[in-house]
Amino acid sequence: MWMRRTGSGDFQLKGGHFMDLSVCFMGLKLRNPIIIAAGPLTASGEMMRRAMEAGAGAVVTKTIVNEIRPNVRPRLVKQQDGMQNIELYSEFTLEEWEEEIAYAKEYGATVIASILAHTPSEMAYIARRVEKFGADAIELGMSSPNGEGLEVLAADPAKLYELTSSATKRVNIPVMVKLSPNVTNMAKLAKAAEKAGASAISAIDTVRSIIGVDIERGKALLPTYGGYSGSPIRPIGLAAVATVSQAVNIPVCGIGGIGNYHHVIEYMMLGASSVQLCTSIMLNGFAYINKILEDLEQWMTARGYANFEQVRGMALSSLKSFEEIKVEPYVIQAPVKCNNNSCNMCSSSCIYNAIKKEQNVMITDTNRCTGCGLCISACPNRILRLVWKE
């Protein structure tokens, strides 16, 4: 399909129609929903400028704290699609961030300042300072998967309320609260943040992890616990965003394992208004932002969607409590012809021994099949489906 990108970030399609990539998030008009998350990619004003020039809708600064600590080396390890980091906070002082934020703003960046503090008064102080520096919004960090061990600063709703309200009462810009997956009840925490005046919730922070062990040397790949990010944590992030979206009436920003346009749509269909990326951009470069945006436009346009509001929350109605699910007598369809002679995934993955392959035809024993559905996702050709059991 012929198209060209306009200066506003919209895509102009043949015939003069527009697919609008922009979103309104926390009252901020963003040219698209892709935000670069707090981390190595936003460690300075120059890096935030690069992210914006590559097409990002906004940037979240590397986390700003009162007391800086030097980062260790090495601090990043990648395995398959996942990454562990033991990187702490910004190595710039609070005062130095005034210049970094100003530099990014010079180039038109929408800057969300990530801040972390241990007491309400400290949180309020840093929040006021970054507002004066020119930040457009604030993201409150509430946890650290490394350094502080398993302690999550605000796993308790009352404590989270106190930390959040200390900031929201002292600033006039939007405040977003970033939730950790290392908690027991995310819905209660999200409600506490909303009650405290938060403008949005972002979820999730990285997952506490040890990514692996060098079994020849008998050593962990990194010398302490750290935060796990990348594709493997996406299911955790999706569940968190769905939970939060069903619990509160403020916008949600989805984070965790977003590597392509499909993942962006997944988060939005579960209620997210925007998304944050870090690991996939670290591994593929800033130019990858434009690839995701182009793929988003093509997918949306092919299905007749004019903007992201038309898909946001679409999948939430398909989620039910376990008690609401109706037990139906479904079984795998049979017989089904399969010409993939080298594949026996359907039969080998059937824990009930209900599928057999005979002369390229899959036969289902309906008395054994319980309709669990594992073979459907295991089949590389996606030719299986559940049917009503006669």
Characteristics of this structure?
390 residues, alpha/beta, TIM Barrel, Alpha-Beta Plaits, 2 domains, 8-stranded parallel beta barrel, globular, Dihydroorotate_DH_cat, NAD, 4Fe4S_Fe_S_CS
Summary of the model, kept short:
With 390 residues, the protein is α/β, with parallel strands linked by helices.
Strand content: 15-25%
Helix share, percent: 25-40%
CATH fold type of the largest domain: TIM Barrel
Which of globular, elongated, flat, extended, rod-shaped describes the shape? globular
Cα-atom Rg, whole angstroms?
23 Å
Number of domains: 2
What would CATH call the homologous superfamily of the largest domain?
Aldolase class I
* Total strands: 24
Measured distance between first and last alpha carbons: 46 Å
CATH-level-2 architecture of the largest domain: Alpha-Beta Barrel
Indicate the CATH class of the largest domain.
Alpha Beta
Mean residue pLDDT: 91
Keywords: Flavoprotein, FMN, Iron, Iron-sulfur, Metal-binding, NAD, Oxidoreductase
GO molecular function, one term: uracil binding
Cofactor: FMN
GO biological process, one term: thymine catabolic process
